[in-house]
Amino acid sequence: MGEEEKITVAQTEEKSSVSSHQSAELPETKTEVPAEVSNVPKKKRVKINIDIIVKEESGSAREEKAAKKKADKTLEEKAKQEEARKQKFAHLKIFNRWPMDVVVNDLGLRNYINLNPIIVPWTAGRNIKKQFWKSRKSIVERLMLKLMVSGHKGKKHLRTSNINTGKLATQYNTIKKTFEIIEQKTKKNPVEVLVRALENGAPREGVATIEYGGVRYPKAADMAPQRRIDLCLRWMTQAAFGHSAKGKKHVWTALADEIMGTASNDQQKSNAIAKKMDMERQSGASR
């Protein structure tokens, strides 16, 4: 054997001894396999891993479901508390004369007509911190507030001064006399007659204006239940003030006639029904 061959053999032996020494120093890295998977063939391990991922995802879905269930439970508890409060004060009557246990037949307006038992319909502005909290006021109080400011007509306020502004005692007596006339003529609970008037006089559709290229077009649109009640109350109070102007009749007599005409769905006697039919006719033409 030549000298060159001896040198190459010695170099290969040294390299093999170094590599074996380094491999002996390095720790053995083994993949940790769960005990339940260790005895399973490799083909089935992929399926087991997928099942574990699905279980984790289902766990998060389970947490979301539990949170939703908890929220629903709190809503149910609040509803039960409200029902218990109504039963506790069910003996209260508005103006200490008429009960408030009236059923609203229109499902769209049921959550917006407040018929909680109360003697004096006055909250002194406790529900004005948020925009739509006026639904928490008694419906009789909302009618009383409409008598103070009967709303817009022709883009201007209609009769916002003198007897219509801020006179709580005046409007209180007006509503009380109105209910007395309704009870005398119809032999029914005046609160029920008022609710039926709101159901009949509240418009279901309105006209919205959309603009394309600088040109405005009318478009029919469903009306929100809060606005339905507001419009009906406005139309009834404006008609009452219109009929009672110049001393023709007292405002409580005119308001009682308007409420009874709207409750009976009479277009000839009710300004609210006429306004409603006109608005729905316009919306039908702009579809």
Please give a structural write-up:
It is built from nine helices and two strands. By secondary structure, it is mainly alpha-helical. It has a domain at 88-285: Ribosomal protein S7/S5 (Ribosomal Protein S7, Orthogonal Bundle), CATH 1.10.455. It has a two-stranded antiparallel ribbon with strand order 1-2. Helix 5 crosses helix 8 (251-263), helix 6 packs across helix 8 (251-263) and helix 7 (225-244) packs across helix 8. The N and C termini lie far apart (107 Å). Mean pLDDT is 81; it is low at 21-31.
Which word captures the global form? globular
Structural class: mainly alpha
- Spans of at least 5 consecutive residues whose pLDDT stays below 50 are 21-31
Placed side by side, the strands forming the largest sheet appear as: 1-2
For the record, give the distance between the C-alpha atoms at the N and C termini, rounded to a whole number: 107 Å
Indicate the percent of residues in helices: 55-70%
C-alpha Rg (nearest Å): 38 Å
Proportion of residues in β-strands = 5-15%
Main sheet makeup:
2 strands, antiparallel
Topology:
Layout: H1 3-25, H2 35-38, H3 42-88, H4 139-148, H5 168-186, H6 190-201, E1 205-212, E2 215-222, H7 225-244, H8 251-263, H9 271-285
Antiparallel strand pairs: 1-2
Summarize the structure.
The protein is mainly alpha-helical.
Annotation keywords:
287 residues; mainly alpha; Ribosomal Protein S7; 2 strands; 6% strand
